[in-house]
Amino acid sequence: MENPPTADLFTGRRLDILDNGSLKLQYNRNRYYDQYTGRWLTHDPLGITPNVRHLGLFAPFAQYTGGTNLYLYADSSPTNALDAYGLMSTVITPQGLAAIWFNLEQLGYTTLQIVAKFEAAGVPTKVIAAAAAILGITIPGHDAEPVPVPIDVVPPTAVPIRVDKCPKPKPPEGARPPHFCERLKCPWPVYVALLAAQNAACKSKARCVAGDSSPVLYGKMTIHMACITARVALAEACFDKKDPWRKKDHERQIKNRLTGIINCADKIAKKMKHELGLW
User: What is the C-alpha separation between 272 and 275, in angstroms, rounded?
Assistant: First the structure.
């Protein structure tokens, strides 16, 4: 039984109250994907409440898995290193952080609140300063306070160009146009941020093996999902469908990740059958 959602004034997200038997525990079930970082954002960091929409045919067995965590894990370790806000990764870049910063501004956060969130998440001071410099922002020296924002505000789909342009060196003799910069459909900072997001989401091969537990198998499967989503976000935002990169590397990498998902799903199904005594 679920009660009507209420609003979290700090994040502007809906909260779901899940009455789990007599325990009356509260879980925040809504999960969001951030295309700029290639990460799943969740307010259920232990993954106790599964998001069955992503389990497909295995949704009836969600109760046996302890739930899924639909965000990238720090160091790709689903059971030991949870990264609920996607900011612990060592691959975070000033460009990617600047894109996140811009989104938070649109949601109503002040500079001090944004800096406080980054610092609390362990982002190095020099990376925060570099991101601020990219956006032309001066950081005041005072503590932040949360402010109410509208429920479920949708971040913008593009970050306007503030600094940096696509580097355009002289093309090699005999090179065929168009140059890479002309092929981009998105602003250069957006491309840089989405590329960093793709690299972060796809850094782990996340190969499922027979000895993995069910939660680990689900964790690895969602890492494959995050990689695919990050790749699609980059391709859709920045390249035409007929672009050579999309026809070669992009499609091949997605097929590899789909194969990984199938491999994980097969091992999950075998474990479920064994646990349910079906063989």
Answer: 5
Domain coverage including residue 238:
6-161+183-275
Count other C-beta atoms under 10 Å from residue 56's C-beta. 9
Tell which residue, 198, 221, 206, has the closest CA to residue 68. 221
Domain presence at residue 125: yes
Residue 167 lies in a domain: no
Contact indicator for 94, 130 with CB cutoff of 8 Å:
yes
Instruction: Give the pLDDT confidence of 140-175 residue by residue, as tens digits.
Output: 653 434 444 344 443 333 333 334 577 665 555 555
Q: What pLDDT was estimated at residue 257?
A: 92
State pLDDT tens for residues 118-141: 777 667 788 788 888 877 787 765
- Output the pTM of the full model: 0.42
